[in-house]
Amino acid sequence: MTTATHPYDALMDITARPKAVFVRGAGSYLWDDSRKRYLDFVQGWAVNCLGHSPPAVADALAAQAKRLLTPSPAFYNEPSLKLAEALVANSAFDQVFFANSGAEANEGAIKLARKYGSLYKGGAFEIISFEGGFHGRTLATMSASGKKAFEPLFEPKVAGFKKAKLNDIASVERLINDNTVAVMLEPIQGESGVWPATDQFLKQLRALTEAHGLLLMFDEIQTGMGRTGKLFHYEHTGIAPDIMTLGKGIGGGVPLAALLATERASCFEHGDQGGTFNGNPVMCAVGLAVLEEVSKPEFLKAVAETGLLLESELQKVSARHGLGGVRGRGLLLALDLKLPIAPGIVAQAFEAGVLLNAPQLDTLRFMPALNVTKGEIAEMIDCLDRILTKAGAARRVA
């Protein structure tokens, strides 16, 4: 479809999109080409951790673009060295490989685990992942994912991934054999509807993998960079994985991701891994600026407090309308609608100028900027409340 202003048909039609064309963003708000304003509680699927076009990101982009775009990954550059050092200093890991997307970081993690298996576990290559998990859209990360919609696509898939049940340690133990090298999971399964692994389950996984000499791999593409009120989700548990992947929020709106590993797990040899734009100085300069903001103790404390406020307000909405529970942690939350009405609510909210996400037919997911204000939360809640009432979903009990 082509209009007088925009040739929509020049883009591949890979997803349903509303016809609005966004032209500007600031903080928690977006504006389209008709100057309509939208309150954004999606933020690029938890990408814009500091909101749209924050000064820290814009300034880092402008400054680095004037200095150096890329010398090629065959050479060191200053921003990538500084960001790697800062990530190591703020985490339980020893080395970092930079990538451009979460899927690419997860692909690297899978390769790293298999390399480890070839060197230290007699060629072991199988990775246990989880039903409902989502790790990306490359062939290997789709194979690792437990998303039902992926099962018939692009066959044959990459072999070597067995699926356990989240929060069921016995289901993991049953899958371990001589070919197993690692266990891989999201601490909170975002795409399937914000289903958290319990802290107790993650501790059990750590103990189980250590007992069998396996690597534990956390996909923190969505939960990392302060999203749950800690810089990284694993910090809630008192344990640490051997490998962690970051994406989305680490770039604050630009394409940046990272694969972090302990010294023991960092076994790539020259030529095993690479990428033309990996460790790009412009992207890494932005990542460093984002990390400096997000890692501040007062910032993380505010995220935790704001997350509790949003959770409380969603619970009130649920009580007023007879809906289900609220799941998640920090500012990654979901509301169980108990009915397959989520896409309709998202569409109505869009018309009202609020951006929401429906990862499942009966679920709304909330991923606002980490610096979202109380007033912006109130604005979103008021919109959602009006839609639920108008839609006749309300069964008032308050």
UniProtKB/TrEMBL annotation:
Q: Which InterPro entries match?
A: AcOrn/SuccOrn_fam (IPR004636), Aminotrans_3 (IPR005814), Aminotrans_3_PPA_site (IPR049704), Class-III_PLP-dep_AT (IPR050103), PyrdxlP-dep_Trfase (IPR015424), PyrdxlP-dep_Trfase_major (IPR015421), PyrdxlP-dep_Trfase_small (IPR015422)
Task: Report the top EC class in one word.
Answer: transferase
Tell me the cofactor note.
Answer: Binds 1 pyridoxal phosphate per subunit.
What cofactors does the UniProt entry give for this protein? pyridoxal 5'-phosphate
HAMAP family in UniProt: ArgD_aminotrans_3 (MF_01107)
NCBIfam families xref list: argD (TIGR00707), PRK01278.1 (NF002325), PRK03715.1 (NF002985)
Q: What is this protein called?
A: Acetylornithine aminotransferase
What is the scientific name of the source organism? Bradyrhizobium betae
